[in-house]
Design brief:
The chain has two domains: 89 residues, Alpha-Beta Plaits (2-Layer Sandwich); 130 residues, Alpha-Beta Plaits, CATH 3.30.70.120. It is α+β, with helices and mostly antiparallel strands.
């Protein structure tokens, strides 16, 4: 099987359920949805046939072959390429914290873990933590203890959480906090380990953590100096 990716879907909130239904048809039930707003200028919106509407942002983990299958269906069934259709894209994952989290995020896929992948010459990584709502400080205290500077939080709602007991041995609440932490690549493993040990499966946060390669940054120099 191929590589793993974080798939991000951004669509009008009014049609978000159609996209979630399509993913479920492809045996993919574990998703994390947040709310957003379009910010493009009015002339660009007019050109693209879009409106300045409320958006839904859907996050999920996909294996390469399934992404290619879903991409075809997004184009054929939901016509995502048409003006105003939305956007779906993938970002390569570099690591996932723990075998149980991997099995939960991929559900029924028979994925064989490969060697941890990184893009060459990357200096930073984006650590994504998905935790039960109300546990931001627990997660951030663990991350800071390993050298993290800070994080950005989105509120999200998870679907397919009933599958957590099958793969992870415990239930998960549907209300989630998604915490984004940018860290130096050499700090990533220590930060992820600290989160897993202090805010992971055995804590009230029940955190799932994974990382993405960051190819460039702006605004971190003063913090690092």
């Amino acid at each position: 099987m191929g590589k793993l990716y974080l798939m991000v879907t951004v669509v009008d909130r009014k049609v978000a359920k159609k996209y979630q239904a399509l993913y479920k048809e492809n045996d993919h039930h574990v998703m994390f949805s947040s709310l957003g707003f379009g910010t493009a200028a009015s002339d660009i919106l007019n050109y693209l046939g879009l409106e300045a509407t409320e958006k839904a942002v859907i996050f999920s983990v996909q294996e390469e072959e399934r992404w290619l299958q879903i991409k075809k269906q997004l184009q054929r069934k939901l016509r995502i390429d048409a003006p105003g259709g939305g956007i779906a894209f993938i970002v390569p994952l570099s690591s996932i914290g723990g075998k149980k989290s991997l099995q939960f995020l991929l559900e029924k896929q028979d994925y064989q873990k490969e060697e941890e992948s990184t893009l060459k010459d990357t200096v930073h990584e984006l650590i994504v933590v998905i935790a039960n709502q109300g546990n931001i400080e627990l997660v951030m205290d663990a991350a800071r203890s390993a050298g993290a500077y800070g994080g950005t939080v989105l509120h999200a709602r998870g679907t397919g959480m009933e599958k957590a007991e099958q793969f992870m041995g415990f239930s998960l609440a549907s209300e989630k906090e998604m915490i984004f932490i940018v860290a130096k690549k050499e700090q990533k493993n220590n930060i992820m380990k600290a989160i897993m040990e202090n805010a992971g499966a055995d804590s009230r946060a029940k955190s799932i953590v994974f990382s993405l390669p960051v190819t460039d940054t702006a605004g971190l120099r003063l913090i690092e100096e």
